[in-house]
Structure formats: structure tokens, C-alpha cells
Design a protein that fits this description.
By secondary structure, this protein is of the alpha/beta class. The protein is built from 18 helices and 14 strands.
């Protein structure tokens, strides 16, 4: 192969919060074509970073850049130009280094790492003598470095990077501020639909990990045994007195058959509301199906009747790649899922066959009991952060009770954003309230998840960051500091909603507060979680501390 002169044209990734610098040699042909670093599909760089931070592997350039900045990692290459044969670092000649001073001038870089032997050699030869900063060489993530397995790379990179990066700062934001934050993220170029896709992938990862853990702990027969127990306890007649049968609105009848070959794979049931919390569940369904899971998705309404956006858009997309009508064979259903994007990247899923998504619209009580009994993991995507009140409306109250019953029998429960029935703002639990083992909350934690006894409903809380929010939060703090200086009072981020709500009547000289229904931070969707309006004008209800342990 003839050598070609390559000039580096991809901009470095860094900002003033960056703390470590990772350097390759020069972009490969695949990276130059893609316009970003480590673009070869077999290069393991992004999967390694995702694994050490326990996140889904990023897919788009924007997601990759976000991941680096969120974890305070700067990324560039040693060389500005060179002659090279294809992607062979060994053939590099006429090397000219990049000027790294622009990064060191802007950020407090505490350590430099070369992502391969050649990059380390070139750094020590061309840059270290003038910069005076040593570098540590990490193993290459290139597929050419076949002797290093993914787990070995994760161990090496994690050992080097994590002690320097420390814990990611935990943010606790009010529901109103999270909605405001979503809007600002959207204004910066990341659509609400893209945020929902990221949320669904984060949810799918936790659900898949739970299914894998359950399989290793209990064995593959666990769900089948629970289903047999549930069937023995469940009457064959539904609440209307008619004989139970698979709903004519269900896309398939075979999902909960214990003899089905999908029982050998992790079996996930996803309960979706009609708001944007449910939209996260629709995204997670196709991610889990692609990871090789058998998925039962339960919804009150078909995708076309969901009005909340972007849940409607995501539901239609999932429905399009889901199963055909009820008499379609399972083998055919698996083929319809092959257009799903890459699944959560884990060692167990790299060679998994895409499975079916069975969509069940308004199943009867008995049908739903059987579906949930067959599941290793139940994902709660019913009611989101927009919920508040003392009780949950039908049919979701029955869905929650059935999920809690299966929890008592050994099923694992994963909640989306907040367990259904729990107020994300106050931590008050309605009747009934779902009890999750894991809760995947989006962007930041919420006050209700931090209250005493919240663990009884939330279990372990995972924050899915979704976007790089630190610059936005810092701009809020700066504005608040300016307002505090002028007004002479102390404000926190959580007070921004109240400050903005008060601004309009004060400017107009009015003494009456604006209606909460017209608050600037009310939920973005027109219908959130089937009509629950957290900013309604209903009289406030007392919210005492729990009088007893919720487990009892």
C-alpha cells in the first residue's frame, strides 16, 4: 500500500473542566470518513469508556462528545500530520506534532495517557521534551490488538482513569427545573426525541443487567415456576365473568407460553403509560429485543392513539419493527426486529439474536397476571415525574398491584424515572405505589427520590445523565448570583422556577400570582401520563412523613 500524507482535521474535545487527556496517533481512514475519533466499528474505545462508567455505549458523535465532557476527559491525537500507509501506525513517517498547549492553557490537565504504544513513543519523542508533562501508555483498543480482550481493556483503562476523575457530581433538581433543563438542552441541538432514545437505552441496560443477574442467581426456570404458581392462583374467568383469552388487540399470543423457545432468553415485561414516561419504555422494548430478550410490552392505548410527543413518535417506531398480527410465527417476528439499532453493548449480547416484541393493548386482569408471571424483569414505565396525588387511576392501579405481587414472588422490578405512584417532587406515595429494585431516573435525581423511606419504593437509584448539563447549571447559578446581588436574598437552583413565575406579576404591578397551569415550567407535553397534571389547581393535601415502614 502506498503512503499518503494525512493532515489532522478533527477538532480536539475539551473544555475548562477537563482533567485527563487521552491521545491517539492520528485518525484512521474510518475516523476521517466519519469525522470523529475511533470511528472503526470494531475499535473498542467507546465500549471501554462506556463500561468503566457503567453507561450504554454512545452511538452518535454528539453522544461521544457528551460522554467525554461529562467525565472531564479531553481527547485528541499526538500528530498534526504525517505520511502513513492506511491505518498502520508502524508505517508513520514525517510526523509533525499537534500543539497541546491550547488544551493545557484552558484546562487543569492532571495526567496524559497515550492510547497505544506508537502514540506513547511519538509523544515522548515530539512533545514531552517541550511540554514537560510525562504520559502513561495504555493498551490499544484497536481490533489489531487481539490479545487484549474487552474485559482486559476495561480493567486497564478503569484502573488508570477512575482514580483521577473521581465521583461524578450528583445533581438533585426539582421537577420544574428538569423540564426547564430539557428545553434548554433541546435549544442547544439535542431534540427531546433524541433524549428519549438515550433514556430508553439507559433503561434497557439496567433491565438487561437485572435479567442477567436474576438468571445467574435463580436459573432459567425461575420465571416458568412463578408463572405456573400464578396460573394455579389466578381464576380463568376475568373480572367481567367471561373466559380469559388473549386480547384481540394483542399483537401476539405466544409471549407468555412457558414452552416457548423465548423462555431460554431473558424475558422482560414493560408496562407503558400513555405519556412520555411510557415513551422511554417503548424505546427500551426495541433495545432489549435486539439484545436477545423476549419482550412483552403492555400499553393502555395503541401507538397511533398516544398524543404525547415524542412518545407517539417512538411508539410508532417500535410498533413498526414489532410483531405482526397474532397468527404470525415467532420465527418471522424475530426477523422483523433486525432493523433495530445496536443493542446495549455487553459481552453477553454481542452475538445475541434479535427477539420478538409482543405488544398487548389493554389486556384483561388475568392476561396481564400471566404475562407478568412469565417475566424475569418487569419494567415500570407507567407514570412519570408528572404524577402527584393520593391514588392511581384504573387501569394503572391494577397494573401496579400485579407487578408488586410478582415482585414478592421473585421478579425483579425496574422503574423508569420514578416508581409509579411516587411523587418525584415530594416523595409522597399514593395508593398503590410500585416497589422497585432499581430506579433509572433521567438527567438528575429529584427531591422525592432523596426523602426518607424513598428506598422502599425506589431501591437503588441510577441517574442516566443523557446530556452534558454542567454548563447550563453553571449559567443558572451565575444568573441567580446576579439576582441575589440585586435583590439581596439567597437563591438556589430549585428556586429558579419560583423566581421566574413571580417576575411577570411584579413587572405588571399585580399582586396575584399567575395560575400554575400557565407556569413556564409545566410539563412540555400536552398530556402527561394520562391526564395527571402536577400543576393543577386542586387544593394541596397534607404530606406527613411516613407513619410506618412502607414494607409492612
Amino acid at each position: 500500500m502506498d503512503a499518503t500524507t494525512v493532515t489532522h482535521e478533527i477538532q480536539p474535545v475539551f473544555d475548562n473542566r477537563s482533567r485527563v487527556l487521552l491521545l491517539g496517533t492520528i485518525p484512521s481512514p474510518a475516523s476521517r470518513e466519519q469525522g470523529f475519533y475511533y470511528g472503526h466499528p470494531q475499535n473498542r474505545f467507546w465500549r471501554v469508556l462506556a463500561a468503566i462508567f457503567d453507561e450504554p455505549a454512545p452511538r452518535t458523535i454528539e453522544e461521544k462528545r457528551d460522554m467525554l465532557l461529562r467525565h472531564h476527559i479531553a481527547l485528541w491525537d499526538v500528530l498534526a500530520s504525517c505520511e502513513i500507509e492506511g491505518a498502520s501506525d508502524a508505517s508513520i513517517r514525517g510526523a509533525r506534532p499537534n500543539d497541546l498547549a491550547r488544551i493545557f492553557d484552558a484546562a487543569d490537565i492532571r495526567a496524559v495517557f497515550a492510547t497505544g504504544t506508537k502514540a506513547g513513543e511519538l509523544y515522548r519523542k515530539l512533545i514531552e521534551p517541550t511540554l514537560g508533562v510525562p504520559c502513561t501508555t495504555l493498551p490499544s483498543t484497536s481490533p489489531a490488538n487481539a490479545k487484549m480482550k474487552l474485559a482486559d481493556l476495561v480493567g486497564a483503562y478503569g484502573k488508570a482513569l477512575l482514580p483521577l476523575l473521581g465521583e461524578t457530581e450528583k445533581h438533585v433538581l426539582t421537577v420544574a427545573d428538569v423540564v426547564k433543563l430539557e428545553k434548554e438542552i433541546a435549544k442547544s441541538g439535542t431534540s427531546l426525541s433524541a433524549l428519549m432514545e438515550r433514556a430508553g437505552r439507559a433503561l434497557a441496560k439496567v433491565a438487561f443487567d437485572e435479567a442477567q443477574a436474576a438468571a445467574s442467581q435463580h436459573g432459567l426456570s425461575n420465571a416458568m415456576q412463578r408463572q405456573a404458581d400464578a396460573i394455579s392462583r389466578t381464576p380463568h374467568d376475568n373480572q367481567n365473568g367471561s373466559t380469559d383469552r388473549t386480547s384481540s388487540n394483542s399483537h401476539t399470543a405466544e409471549a407468555s407460553d412457558p414452552s416457548d423457545e423465548n423462555q431460554a432468553a431473558p424475558h422482560i415485561a414493560i408496562l407503558c403509560g400513555s405519556g412520555n414516561n411510557g415513551g422511554d419504555g417503548w424505546v427500551a422494548a426495541r433495545e432489549l429485543a435486539c439484545a436477545g430478550c423476549a419482550v412483552d410490552l403492555v400499553t393502555k392505548r395503541p401507538a397511533r392513539e398516544i398524543s404525547a410527543e415524542p412518545a407517539h413518535e417512538q411508539a410508532l417506531l417500535t410498533e413498526a419493527i414489532a410483531s405482526e398480527p397474532a397468527n404470525t410465527p415467532r420465527a418471522g417476528l424475530r426477523q422483523t426486529a433486525t432493523s433495530v439499532p445496536t443493542a446495549p453493548q455487553t459481552t453477553a449480547t454481542q452475538h445475541a439474536k434479535p427477539r420478538a416484541i409482543a405488544i398487548h393493548v389493554s389486556p384483561s386482569h388475568g392476561e396481564l397476571a400471566c404475562l407478568l408471571a412469565a417475566a424475569d424483569v418487569i419494567v415500570d414505565a407507567i407514570l412519570g415525574t408528572g404524577f402527584s396525588g393520593d391514588s392511581v387511576l384504573a387501569p394503572y392501579d391494577a397494573w401496579i398491584r400485579l407487578a408488586n405481587e410478582q415482585r414478592a414472588r421473585g421478579a425483579r422490578i425496574v422503574a423508569t424515572d420514578v416508581p409509579s405512584g411516587l411523587s418525584a417532587q415530594t416523595g409522597k406515595a399514593a395508593e398503590p405505589c410500585l416497589k422497585a429494585h432499581e430506579t433509572v431516573t433521567m438527567i438528575a435525581s429529584k427531591p422525592g427520590l432523596e426523602t426518607p423511606y424513598a428506598f422502599a419504593f425506589c431501591g437503588t437509584v441510577h441517574v442516566a445523565p443523557l446530556a452534558y448539563i454542567e454548563p447550563i447549571l453553571e449559567s443558572w447559578k451565575q444568573r441567580e448570583a446576579e439576582c441575589d446581588t440585586l435583590a439581596g436574598n439567597d437563591g438556589l437552583i430549585g428556586s429558579s422556577a419560583a423566581a421566574d413565575a413571580n417576575a411577570a406579576p411584579e413587572a405588571a404591578g399585580a399582586g396575584k400570582q399567575p395560575s400554575p397551569k400557565h407556569d413556564a415550567f409545566r410539563r412540555a407535553e400536552t398530556e402527561d401520563d394520562d391526564g395527571y397534571d402536577p400543576y393543577s389547581d386542586r387544593p394541596p393535601t397534607p404530606e406527613p412523613l411516613f407513619q410506618a415502614d412502607p414494607w409492612n
